[in-house]
Amino acid sequence: MPVYIRKGPLEIPPYEEQDWIKDEDGDYFLKDPDQILDSLPQPFRMISNLINLLFDRTWETIEEREATRAITIIKSKPTVYLPTKEIKSWGEPSSIAVSKHYVFVALSNGIKILNVLKDYSLVRNWEMVKYGMMSISATEIGNEIFVTAVDEIGVVRIFYFYKDILFLIKAMNEVEDISKQTPCLNLKVSPGGDFMAILFQGSGSIWLEVYRLPKENWIKEVEQPHLSQSKKKASHLHLKVSVSQDLAELENYLLKAEIKFSSPIQILKLKPPKPVTGTPFKSPVEVFQKIEDVYGLGSGQNHMIRDVQLEQQAAIFDILFRKFLPLTDPEQDPSTTGIHFLLPGHIMMLPSETKGPSGMACVLGVHWPGRHNFFLYSLFRPPRDKEKADSDMKPEGVWPTASPIIKSAISPCSSFVILVCEDGVITMWNRAQAFLLGVISLPEGCSCRSLHFLKNYETLEDCPFPEDVLSSKLQVLVLCTDGSLYLVNAEKASDPSISVIVERPVKHPNETICVVAPIPFLTPLILLCVLDGSVYIMNVTNSEIICELVSPASYMANPWEPVFAFIPETQSVFIRGDLEKSTQFQHYNYCLFIFELESCQQAKTSLPLSEKKSFSHSSEISSCINQLPLVKRCEFFLQNRLKNFDSTKENGLESLLELQKSSTIIQKENRKK
């Protein structure tokens, strides 16, 4: 077999025929000798080399353009949209929460409450002297609002907002000695305000406490003293007072009265699972005897592996893969513990005696930092289970994964569950119908920072059912730690797909996206916050920047920490502005800017037809419908129902015929019996 040795570096022949090398055939080198039969003669070999070179350069150009496509989109000057209103802040706003038509602002000196319907006027002020508030959340509980706030040292305070008055119910973990303080790392309230979960840290360990909120008792404790006092006044005075005077008297009484609220009831205390150790059991029979009510199956604690076997397995793994492992184990952030409240589903079936009222959360989902399992705990355990020790609390369900879980998300209807692992694998489940939507991976080197669900706007126009019923398609935004943004599409009958919306900025690190948030009242639009202080509105369907929300130049400090909130009542966005250090003065170093998107024409024109209708309809009624009493609201909705009577008349006749047929069939069956 002949051996071919390279005599010199391979060069591409020049373009002119007269400059070709005469003895090129002798100097030609093949890496694979079997290709000698397929070698092209001159000048075709030179043409092939030139074509390959052209393809290589073209491909490099395409890759460069794709990498800079997202940066070019953001760099292109979009339409500038200025704030329609600004509110001088009374301190440093660290968090904003919106519930109904109220805006709750957590400040360095307390809490401020604004009324959206009254031109953002100040309704109530709760001052804090020692420590500032770091986070705040607001949850509707009937006609009132449940508020939770966490201060700088991690103390959790729960409030009850009633008749424009903020009542302090309790400070959950406040102690006199700060050195013994157990700070709160994470807090979650279930939809409807039935349960609350708080993650604490202390003495080198973390644990999760779950409480049931006695919201029915709170409304009675607020209203009953005033009702009894008003009856006494009416029996003695027999005077007719106006509604405004009655409300004023109610407010004065509630402010002066010292109402003792019922404390939340602790129902669960959970700790991270213990590391897997060797089994003390000698036979599988002992393992099954230890398991009670099949709780904890899949957690890895029930096995028949000895300590010696675990040590041997660890030693073999260390020898084979030591060079691929990092020198030090990454530190796990305990605040990344995932906490979710879930509605009933088909994946985890509970006994009938443990189920709660319909529409109430019944399952708690938890995943701990650095762990492979997603644990499911029932919130309605039988009384005999509540008597067990906290350390023996075992989950009703376990979802194991191949890699540690770093992020998780639950859809607003709690039908979809998404788990993102450390290796970039995304698993999507449909809990309501008990099937796997799909599994897909992020590009190599990407790590998930946040997950966001998008409404399925494509079917909103044709389907009359709410989006929770449309469970066949799912769209999720994935923001990575490097600033890249991806859109994941999953459907029941097809494989999931992933597409890039914004690439990682390589040449301009200050244009990295730090926060992404879908706009709830504008379905295909999202809010992008960039490190340099810029805020953009993007259309997800075509990755197009619609407009830029620009604050005054003096309030665009760089770098900045985005603090914002969406207000569906007025179709607007709250954004905090930070005053630059060079222009800071004693008062008003921060400002809240309001951008009313209802008047933004660029946002309207980029919406689908169905969203334009809902956008205009909601903007028309949002300003007046909430100010009407209940009777007027019912009359308003009935009038709208009559307007659409012609369009639903045909469907109504068909439904009536179907009902008549079904009734006759039922009557015949009853007669036979």
Automatic annotation (TrEMBL):
GO CC, any one term: respiratory chain complex I
SUPFAM superfamilies: WD40 repeat-like (SSF50978)
GO BP terms in the entry: electron transport chain
InterPro entries in the record: NADH_UbQ_FeS_4_mit-like (IPR006885), WD40/YVTN_repeat-like_dom_sf (IPR015943), WD40_repeat_dom_sf (IPR036322), WDR93_beta-prop (IPR049547)
Pfam family of the protein (one): WDR93
Protein name: WD repeat domain 93
Organism: Monodelphis domestica (Gray short-tailed opossum)
